[in-house]
Design goal:
217 residues; TcmI family type II polyketide cyclase; four-stranded antiparallel beta sheet; Polyketide_synth_cyclase_sf; Dimeric_a/b-barrel; alpha+beta
Length: 217
């Protein structure tokens, strides 16, 4: 199944994980995710940065999407999250659109029969926007062999001073391999070839922890 992804970035304290997970679990138990074409939702956290990954089916019902936007439960979720989830940069935030990251690189491996479910790893690193072309080239070269590592899909998003590196891999057992690959690429190839990108916080072990996941049945 081909999916289109959206990523938003916010600030969140790890102590809020139970409350935020509960709010999304209640919301995702309704019919609304299906109405908007949401196939999978995953929430990750690293050093107070929350990464919200939405995977949508390729073609969404626009009429249903517009109807869902006006559903009071959507507005109530936003209000209920406010004590726990805050804008990454409050001084420049005007609307939810200001939390959206931009995808600048996407790669998908060849399907192998019936691919089945995937696991996802997310890595955060600091990146200057003017490094995007060079970082893209480094990953494009690397992905010539990524299929051998069980990686099915790779996406790179940029948000403010962050690069969000998302890998979907074939099995749970591949998570360690995918995380090592992310570290090797970013903190090996990228920083070796682009030394001006100093490894600031989030730290070089920038693997985010997934604390919530939902997938359509």
């Amino acid at each position: 199944m081909h999916m289109r992804s959206m990523v938003t970035v916010s600030k969140m304290d790890r102590d809020a994980i139970p409350e935020v997970s509960k709010l999304f679990a209640e919301f995702d138990s309704t019919e609304i995710p299906g109405l908007i074409g949401l196939h999978r939702r995953q929430l990750f956290i690293h050093h107070g940065v929350q990464v919200h990954l939405y995977d949508f089916v390729e073609k969404s019902d626009q009429a249903a999407l517009e109807k869902a936007k006006s559903d009071p439960r959507m507005a109530r979720l936003s209000v209920d999250l406010q004590p726990f989830v805050t804008p990454y940069e409050p001084e420049t935030w005007n609307s939810p659109a200001d939390s959206a990251a931009s995808c600048f690189y996407a790669w998908e491996g060849e399907p192998e029969g019936r691919p089945g479910p995937t696991e996802t790893t997310v890595t955060l690193a600091r990146m200057e926007a003017d490094a995007i072309p060079e970082v893209t080239e480094i990953f494009r070269d690397f992905d010539a062999t990524a299929q051998l590592m069980g990686i099915r899909r790779r996406q790179l998003f940029v948000f403010k001073d962050l690069c969000i590196h998302i890998q979907d891999h074939a099995r749970r057992d591949d998570a360690d391999i995918a995380q090592k690959a992310a570290t090797d690429i970013w903190f090996g190839h990228v920083l070796r070839e682009l030394p001006r990108l100093a490894p600031q916080e989030p730290t070089p072990d920038g693997h985010a922890i997934r604390f919530y996941g939902w997938e359509a049945s």
